[in-house]
Specification:
The structure is a single chain. With 134 residues, the protein is α+β, with helices and mostly antiparallel strands. It has three helices and six strands. Helix content is 25%, strand content 39%. It has one domain: Roll (Nuclear Transport Factor 2, Chain: A). A hairpin with a 4-residue loop joins strand 3 and strand 4.
Length: 134
């Protein structure tokens, strides 16, 4: 077991979600942000997802955004609760810009993150709503 990081949790979370953002553009490093498998939950229920299957589905997700007339979502709000020494519940809001202009679409997600002291990994990814028109 590793030592607990001396970097404040809020700083670590900001760095984590900066790497998680679609704008980061690092598809190779993106997979390392997830446990394998992790639990994906949405309005259809919850299911375990192998990391490789999730990464393979990302181009389709990008296409769903494009089909809905949306650009890549940007993190606008992050709150969190440390649940215990190893787990953090992060709640996020994201704004996806409308390609044709107008108010962005607000998306909300929550994440249960495992904290091994060195790195954070998503073990539960909860989407609170789907894309408009998707």
């Amino acid at each position: 077991m590793s030592q607990t990081s001396t970097v404040p949790l809020e700083t670590r979370l900001r760095r984590f979600f900066a790497a998680f953002s679609p704008a980061a553009g690092d598809a190779d490093g993106f997979g390392e942000l997830f446990g394998d498998p992790f639990l994906l939950a949405d309005d259809a229920g919850a299911r375990p997802v192998p990391r490789a299957a999730f990464l393979a589905a990302l181009p389709r997700r990008a296409q769903l955004f494009a089909d809905a007339g949306l650009g890549p979502a940007m993190l606008t709000d992050l709150t969190y609760d440390r649940l215990d020494e190893r787990y953090v519940l992060a709640r996020t809001d994201w704004d996806a810009p409308r390609v044709a202009g107008g108010e962005p679409v607000r998306l909300a997600s929550s994440y249960l993150l495992h904290d091994d002291g060195d790195r954070l990994r998503i073990v539960l990814y909860l989407n609170h709503q789907g894309l408009p028109g998707a």
